Amino acid sequence: MAETEHAGVEETLKRIEAQKGVIGTIVVNAEGIPIRTTLDNSTTIQYAKLFRLLTMKARSTVRDIDPQNDLTFLRVRSKKHEILVAPEHDFLLIVIQNPCE
Amino acid sequence: MSNNNAAATMKKGLPAQKAALLGAKTTKAAAKKKDEEEGVDNGDGWDDWSHGKALIKPPDQLELTETELNEKITRILTTNNPHAPQNIVHYSFKERSYKPTSVVDQMAVLFVLEGSLLHQDCDEARRLRAKGDLPKETATVETGTEPDEEKPDTLVRALATPVEDGGEVDEAGEEDRPDSVASKADMEPKATNPFNFSERASQTLNNPLRERSCQTEPPPRSIFAATANQWEIYDAYVEELQKQEKNKEKQKAAASKKDTDKSKKKTMLMETQNDDITKVRKSAKILERMVHQNIFDDIAQDFKYFEDASDAFRGQEGTLLPLWKFQYDKAKGLSVTALCWNKKYQDLFAVGMGSYDFSKQGRGMLLHYTLKNSAFPEYIYPTDSGVLCLDIHEQHSYLVAVGFYDGCVAVYSLKKKGLEPVYKSTAKTGKHTDPVWQVRWQRDDMDNNHNFYSVSSDGRVVSWTLVKNELVFTDIIRLNGAVSEVPEGAQQPGITCGTSFDFHKQIDYLFLVGTEDGLIHKCSKTYSSQFLETYEAHSMAVDAIKWNHFHPKVFISCSPDWTVKIWDHTINTPMFTFDLNAAVGDVAWAPYSSTVFAAVTTDGTVHVFDLNVNKYEAICQQSVVAKKTKLTHIEFNPIYPIITVGDDRGHVSSLKLSPNLRKKPKGKKGQVQPKGPEVEVAKMEELLSLLREPEQSTA
User: Fold this and answer.
1) Among A32-41, B308-317, B525-534, B664-673, which stretch is predicted with the lowest mean pLDDT?
2) Largest CB tally within 10 Å, which of A13, B410, B411, B519?
3) Contact criterion met (CB < 8 Å) for A29 and B282
């Protein structure tokens, strides 16, 4: 069961990576260590560290307003690309995409 | 003092007097005393002495009686030191206790003066003489006298050298002495002056200081920072609440406690071992949709907001805007054989894949797509045999009934994990012997069991009931044995194959069955042998029959004989007939209007009709797929203005209806627009009445 789930998640991540415009994906575990990535090491670590802080802040903000609420995902759109962050169970999933304009 | 003395003598006054009177010769002092006494006796006017015989006492004189006065008190003089302690104890190691010292020293030293006189014959004197330090007798005498003037200090007795800066007292004496001494230096060594105070200091070697330090490993430190936010407090409360609830549960269930603990332990282990990706399953799914949305952003915007403005200039015609295209790699080679929208989640729809080709029968698939993700299906169920039809339950939208080419029917539950259907019919349990062309869920029966109907080419309409773990079937109607009222009286020979059916929306028992011969039978669930009515609909098989969503009497049918017909079930002949120039695969009523319907043909065209606008022609005819692709099915979305169209290549296209196709009847200006199904019914009724009138007039 766990194996098929694992495979399912892997497949999903691969599909995401195969989509048009996706530059890379990073999966960060509860301690802030990236466990799966398609980018180079230094970039990965940088992204992991920075977005972890940002996500924690964002979640704190949302919950501070209403403690029963919680953050589902975060989108940061910049000039060059869009970074999609989905937090779950203290894990963090980051996808960097170049939206086709 | 004198008084006391006098008093003392007074005490012994009588004996003294007696002594005096005895004629002892008294000294002058005694005579003086006597005189005094006599003087007292005589009373020379001394007030104090007036009471001469009375004793003079000091004011604090101890009052004693005569006997007490005469008492003789013995006083003993001892040599005991009254200050000496009487109870000195010493610790005896032998007996391991404190023992009183028996003898205590009674000597009290009052004054010690150490002298430095040496007897000339004592050892020390002889020694000094031998050394030569001791001067002659005169000198010794002098030295003997010297100490008297010096401080008697016992610190230093014999000095090697004389101290020159001795006491200042005898400076004068010393000045003489050194001279005398110096002259005798050769002869006699200078006598040391043992009595001069001298201080002699010496310094020991200072040990070199060495610093020796030891450093322990500092205890591991970690920085702890936390914020006190509203949600942290909330979380703490929630946790506390949960703990309390758990405690309550534990109290209630003591026996099962162990099991739950064990299972909890197991799950805990699992979690700690998996530092991995399965935890982000849901997030990954959401992210996939987000990425998809980014990519197909323009389509999503169109879907939501785009209204074709050019419709205003197009008169009555409308267009279809292509939106997403859904396809699945592993479904290549299969054609879309069924489409159904989910009533609860309106962005989810089910696609059945199989093949209509008799010779190319193989596997099939059941897929669920969502509009949010066109790249990959949400649910995938591969099947052994091609899927020919499916239906999603209205209330329990996780239940999907599927009919297969091999005659089986199955029920899948989307809630269950696993690729097998929850129920499946087998040869024993009454599966059809020919392909199942249509399935439909019905309302739950009286026992609250779910049930659905299926129609198949073997001529049976069967009702399947989900009883616990089984699928129980009931033949409702056999199309072969039924006798219908044919005007010429000839009975229907042999087996008729049912190819489609539909149940009336309001009247529960009423349904229509279309056959391969092109006939439509109106049947009732309660009558198993007879049809209520038969319509000679088409020249080829009736592929689809659909009741109108609003009007209770109207239904539509289509057939590969290129026609689409609209009927009133009370009348034997069709109300409307449309020729579409190509075999019609499927037809569907619009959920928002009673007069709008769409049909798909094998030449890849979608035809949309609005009877209210144009009774004879389609208001939209659009080719939506590449050439040589046949369109097989069409379905309207319940709430969004989109339609999905399936083709024989396994692709599903979604199209948006332009505003012209969604027209609501315009009311007169100033009038409030009535809304609701009644309007629709009225609309249809109007149309029908127009048709009926000429009929009645001709008939």
Assistant:
1) B664-673
2) B410
3) no
